[in-house]
Amino acid sequence: MAAPESAALDTVRTRGEAFLRDVSREYYSSHAGLKPAAELQPIYEKHREAYGDESLELAMNLLKSSTPGSEEHRSGRMLVEWLLESRAGRELAPLEEREIAWEGAAMIPLADGGLEPYRRASITIANTRDARERRALDDARARLVAAELAPMRQERLSREKEIIERAGIAPSYLDTFDALAGISIRGLRDDCKQFLRDTQSMWDDVLPEFLKHGLGITPAEATRADAVALMRVPEFDSGFPSEAMEREVRRQVTEMGASPDANGRVRYDTGEREGKRARAFCAPVTIPDEVYLVIRPHGGQNDWQTLLHELGHALHFANIDTQLPFEHRWLGDNSITEGYAMLFDHRMKDRGWLSRYTELSKTDLPRYLRSAGFEELQFLRRYCAKLIYEVELYGGNVSWSALPDLYVETLTGATGFKYQRSDAFVDVDPRFYSARYLRAWQLQSLLAETLVDRFNDDWWRNPHAGPWIVQELFARGQRELAEEQAQRVAKKSLSFAPLVKAIEGLLT
Ligand SMILES: [Zn+2]
Fold first, then answer.
1. Rounded to the nearest whole angstrom, what is the distance from the C-alpha of residue 345 to the centroid of ligand 1?
2. Order of strands across the sheet that contains 281-286
3. What is the CA(53)–ligand 1 centre distance, in A?
4. Phi and psi at residue 37, in whole multiples of 5°?
5. In the chain, count of helices (H) and strands (E)?
6. Which residues pair with 266 in a beta bridge?
7. In this predicted structure, what is the pLDDT of residue 1?
8. What's the predicted TM-score (pTM) here?
9. What is the Å distance from ligand 1's center to 183 Cα?
């Protein structure tokens, strides 16, 4: 009995991997500027059996017939989660394409009669030093979004909720997420509320100072547009030159005793090319053998941070054990890979690392670290508020028409920046990706603590640390949930406690 079933499941795995390879190669080619646009529809068409009814039925059987806690159950959970996501993605693709087309063409009408391309607005807002001009542009953007983009997004979110609930895995969207992701989303929501309470007085202390120094404004008038401008202050960019970026990051990984390109499996695409995306990204085309790290070096703080983040992903994918089954290499809890990416990008908040690999001066370093602590607290408070709001959005107890006010109240309350009603459906990470980031944030702080315990404060240049990271973390793919890994490696549960401690350290 068991044999034909397991042969059929292996077919699901083989087809799944072929499908994901094609998707990943398409993203790589289009985002790297090797072809003008991603053509995903033909790939979905070619691989329709990979995520078809038969595949879902086999995966559902595996999930339902296996004992919770067993490896079969783990595989069933991963496969069903991915298949549901792919099927929803396929069904919602026309809506998504409509939004992408809108975003590419939309123009914001300005008060002076001019036009601002929608896609460029956030960059212009960040770079506009005059507060009135900046807020006027954001108000014009919000009017256009409310009239045109927000209704499209709302439709996509409500359709997605219907598709997931229709699958009948659990009674509600939230319960389905818990069952398939292995996370308690309501538990995480409660931890977020606690984090906001625990850091409220710290936030009240630092916000006025940074607003005054960065933008010359007070908390009473601060808006989300001001927050965007504040986080882009280029004050320290000269400490992060473009020509040193790749060289210094490779040097650090080498000093740690690991290969900066995983012995050739990570391919650095660093050439200048028209149509290449401005931000670094990572595309695992074959895991672990062919992983692209695409960079277009501009230099500056954000660029270094993005490169480190994407390098964490790339080294993870390229070091995954070839013998692992498809689901442990390609699927699973993305809090794991985001945790490794954040472990790398948080070196931008590490005094010793900054002194060794960047050109920040000794006099700038203390001010830079304080500002990094402020930025970390702002982003964490924003993400906690987003998750609290998104649980209400998917929870179904608040009507769609009441959500914009709830969004403004929640995000404004947590950050002190006044948010816009128009963004209630636009500023949403679908399927609780914000929960993956929050768990990753928690995981990286535990991993960093463990690395300091094992390999000292400067673990990032200890030649024993790299091999340990490769073997004990990267090689295992995403078989574990973030919580399981925290228990195995740090003997602790995930929580916000180590993050609060780290932020306090930066802000003092
Ligand atoms: Zn990431």
1. 10
2. 266-269, 290-294, 281-286
3. 31
4. -150, 155
5. 22, 5
6. 291
7. 45
8. 0.95
9. 19
